[in-house]
Amino acid sequence: MRILVTGNLGFVGSVVAPYLAARGHEVQGLDAGYFESCLFGRPADPPTVRKDVRDVEPEDLEGFQAVVHLAALSNDPLGELDPDLTAAINLGGTLRVAEAARRAGVARMVFASSCSLYGLGGAAAVDESGDMRPQTAYAKSKIDAEAALDALGRDDFSPVFLRFATAYGVSPRLRLDLVVNNLVGWAVSEGVIRIQSDGSPWRPLVHVEDMARAIAAALEAPREVVHRQAFNVGRSDANYQVKTIAADIGRLLPHCQVSINPQASPDTRSYRVSFDRIHAALPDFRPEWGLERGILQLRDAYREHGLDQATFHDRRFTRLLQLKHLLENGQLGSNLRWTH
Ligand SMILES: NC(=O)c1ccc[n+]([C@@H]2O[C@H](COP(=O)([O-])OP(=O)(O)OC[C@H]3O[C@@H](n4cnc5c(N)ncnc54)[C@H](O)[C@@H]3O)[C@@H](O)[C@H]2O)c1
To answer: Environment class of residue 118 by beta-carbon count within 10 Å: exposed (0-12), middle (13-18) or buried (19+)?
Structure first.
């Protein structure tokens, strides 16, 4: 299959694009390149068009059978940078890609949505029909984008919504602003596992390589199984409280203390998620990573990389810091477009 992957030069895309290519697909990328130089390893990038999704034209989608749409301002703090920009890129850019794809005759669009759209959860695990109580501009942008894409679905265009749990794991374009990656980073670089909350919030987790497996399964499944469907993406046993994640890290890196921030404002992003639907509908999706193995992968990669305090706090690995840097030195304008 010829597949266009938007956002392929990010944390997830740098794993997904080579994974799809290794499965025999012909992959091309499209990315604005905000984090292109934020390297942790050696990426195996496919041929990539440097372009903003807000400027995509039908010609950019010509000749593809599917588009995997990852490009976005990709987390809660980024969304708060400017909620209008989050809407312009995460909703407006998504619609632009979808409309171009439809006009170009692309049959399937796999959209990277997020479990964070459930927001403030109750005691029970929420499934795809559960209430959405978004707590951030980012989460709201995912809800709005899903609704807009759903309205574009028709016989020859199938949007699929993959609501990913919080990612963790190693990528050649690493992010340290994700909970597991961050806490292992504290442990390796400072010997203290510093939780920025009281540790009670629940988070569903998914390894970045298992995200790639879910995307492949959604691309390769029969149309009627995925057409206009939403799937939570994770493992059924992968809901954790942040303090449990910290305790597991403490067990695997035994000389580290766990430190809880009693002053932290309450984290309202707490939710448990059911992953039953994806496992029933897409049996080819078989996650291979558990948290313990993921922690060990991160620990070993950080040690190999010599992750010290300076590297841990470097802007390259925190999305908000890198964007602020590009804004402050004038490489990006306030609309997040390159100035030259
Ligand atoms: N990482 C997670 O925990 C997680 C969880 C759920 C969903 N997701 C979703 O998966 C996708 C990828 O996340 P990620 O962690 O790789 O984020 P990331 O920030 O590492 O990568 C996003 C990529 O999109 C590109 N991009 C951003 N705005 C663009 C624009 N206007 N035009 C073209 N390219 C643009 C960036 O340059 C970057 O390469 C996002 O849609 C995100 O919302 C991620």
So the answer is: buried
pLDDT of residue 254: 84
pTM, two decimals, is 0.97
- The answer to whether position 102 is within a domain reads yes
Torsion of CA 138, 136, 313, 182, to 10 degrees: -90
Q: Is there a contact between 108 and 219 (Cβ–Cβ < 8 Å)?
A: yes
- Return the ligand 1 atom nearest residue 8 CA: 39
Is the distance from CB of 17 to CB of 38 less than 8 angstroms? no
**Residues labelled catalytic:** 138
Each residue of 310-328: pLDDT tens digit? 999 999 999 999 999 999 9
Domain CATH for 206: 3.40.50.720
Residues whose beta carbon lies within 6 Å of some atom of ligand 1: 7, 9-13, 31-35, 52-54, 70-74, 89, 93, 112, 114, 164, 166-167, 175, 178, 319
CA distance linking residue 239 with residue 249, whole number of Å: 16
Q: Which residues constitute the domain of residue 104?
A: 2-328
Q: Whose CA is nearest to atom 1 of ligand 1?
A: 167
Number of compact structural domains in the chain: 1
Do the domain assignments include residue 336? no
192 CB contacts (<8 Å, ≥6 apart)? 186, 256, 257, 258, 259
Query: Does a structural domain hold residue 318?
Result: yes
